């Protein structure tokens, strides 16, 4: 699930270059400073317009934010954009309208994706311009000015570039009631406050952004949706779906060799795939269809992430809500999305928080099964092997320790050894973890309250974790590991996201594009991202056998896993390096060189031509 100033004059930059040289160079996310801010009681109260605590809270957060701009030279555009987005929130809250508009232009200048260069912060831009026009931040004149300004900004935009982003903007705007936002924030941040009495700077920036939306964006959501829907209605054409023409369906007449596909994920409902399972003749402690580890790293017999009994009983009834939420976030107009909008309209903060608390469990519950369905489609030789662990680290209800990290690292090494000894040819890894995630986990469990000490402890835990994953991949050199690039619209290498930041000969990372082959707004990138695949509204199975469309690089990665498994099924003698070469050679680059779209037909044709030589 996805939830969402520099001097421009050359002379000014040159004049300040001597000061820039004294700044600390930031080459990774961990090089940035950490801050914490005391919060008492209900964190969502900070979103209320009459919150007595927000001004003192905001003054400290803003001062620390400006100290980062002053003292650090950031070598990553995505991180610089994030910091500027935080600054923009405070400019909007403080009525710095002209400065806010300049910040938006700076953000767009740092954007790398074509749609973001044109449409980043469209709603914020219209609000700031309306304030200037109406000389007010509310009232009939302001509302009219906002509607006019948003229409002026949106209507000239090229549909083929911004269509998904505009749909997403509309879908998100329709949900953003103050109660919905309050519950979303509480689900994420209240555990920090309850355990540590404070929030970190990333969460503080989120609070500022949500406050802008709750106070200024939410009252305009009807107007926002109306303007965006008018643009959609005037321009909407069905974009061509390039993927069906590229996909290959193998049959038994292709003389296939069985190929084992590992799904290293949060678990799989193996009952959905009765004819596509590998059965270990000597399973030992684990299930015949794979290995499963519980949250603390112990052995488990359950290949599907266990749900609490009450959520297990509610699961089937909750699926339409889950589909409605997903469709609404991506701007897909379905009956489920309409029903979800109706539900949101009457939600209280406690209802919203309950929804997001459920999603913390339902999302990983369905994730691995959806990934598995994409990985095996069109391949009768595919045999699934499940490697289950729970990647939702920051939501685990115990504090991480070095002993825990070592236990999980050993579990990962067991996965690598299993791949080597059982000849698992390809493994999908649609997940990733960063040092900052360990910091958030420590904060939510009351550990490491000093921000510098917490960062140090998180890095120590992360290094153990990272070594276990890296060792597992290295220990199975005949297995190709394929991972998701991530959904944060950032550089996986700068973020130190593992596995997508790792440089290993038998590992590639995958970015997400839509049905027409254009970059999604959420996909991350980096020098390890070798190819791109469909990651937008991709249909597959969820536990129980229902089919559902989900979006994310998690859905793009198994598309490449699917291709790799077909290559291995046709020619089992291929090494991972040879398979990677075929996948890359078959991909078609975009004109700007940012994307390399996989093509199963072309890669398999190249394999046939290679065999004929």
Quick overview of this protein structure:
The protein is of the alpha/beta class and 613 residues long.
Describe this protein's structure.
The protein is α/β, with parallel strands linked by helices and 613 residues long. It has two domains: 10-235, no CATH class; 255-308 and 366-576 and 589-612, Rossmann fold, CATH 3.40.50. Helix content is 53%, strand content 11%. An eight-stranded mixed beta sheet has the order 7-6-8-5-9-10-11-12, sandwiched between helices. The radius of gyration is 24 Å and the shape is globular. The two termini are 46 Å apart. Residues 1-20 have low confidence and may be disordered.
Keywords:
about 625 residues, Rossmann fold, two-stranded parallel ribbon
Helix and strand topology:
Blueprint: H1 10-15, H2 17-20, E1 24-26, E2 36-38, H3 54-71, E3 72-74, H4 77-93, H5 97-110, H6 114-119, H7 122-134, H8 140-154, H9 159-175, H10 178-196, E4 198-200, H11 201-217, H12 221-235, H13 243-246, E5 259-265, E6 290-293, E7 299-300, H14 309-330, H15 335-345, H16 349-376, E8 382-388, H17 402-422, E9 424-429, H18 435-444, H19 451-474, E10 480-484, H20 492-495, E11 507-513, E12 529-534, E13 538-541, E14 547-550, H21 553-570, H22 576-586, E15 588-589, E16 596-597, H23 600-612
Parallel strand pairs: 1-3, 5-8, 5-9, 6-8, 9-10, 10-11, 11-12
Antiparallel strand pairs: 2-4, 6-7, 13-14, 15-16
Helix pairs in contact: 3-4, 4-5, 4-11, 5-7, 7-8, 8-12, 9-12, 9-14, 10-11, 10-16, 14-15, 16-21, 17-19, 18-19, 21-23, 22-23
